Amino acid sequence: MDRIKALKMLKFTAIPIIFMILCMLAYWDISPEYEAHKANIANTSEKEPVAKVETTEDVTWQDKVKEIASLNSPPTEKFDSIVAYAKKYPSTKAEIKEFEDYIIAEYKNKTYLADVQNDEYMLGNIFKATVVNKYYGEEETPINDFVFGFYQNSNYTFKGLESTNSNAIKYNERQMDHALAAIEN
Hints:
Blueprint: H1 2-30, H2 32-46, H3 61-69, H4 75-88, H5 93-108, H6 119-136, H7 142-158, H8 167-184
Helix pairs in contact: 1-2, 3-4, 3-6, 4-6, 5-6, 5-7, 6-7, 7-8
């Protein structure tokens, strides 16, 4: 008896739900408002975001950093743009070595977070760290660990998520010190 009752209840609830879904689908297929909404979505997806930057082969990474730094966008959008560019950047082994040496020198000199308001400087650091980190991928090496800490600290301070002397930054720096000791040995 309960089974028959349950089937009847299911039948009476499922049929209206299916009918409602079919009506909605039919409405969306013929509704002028829906067509206008689809056209609006297509138009906005064709427009480029403010911080997106087109790449050309004549532009150096330094030019790209300057261009993104000069955009009238919030730091988060600038950060996203430089990281997207860095992930596509075709680096050479010589550049990787140059970027590694630069990152280590900036950290040792304690200058890498000295001017977090300087967009061009910070974006350049983030670019270099991203390129090096992309080169090593998931490989756990002292240099990759070091560069990742550099990247995180540059990211957090540039976006204003952490102050230069916050506990998170100091923790990452202790990790970077361990990685640096392993690099130098």
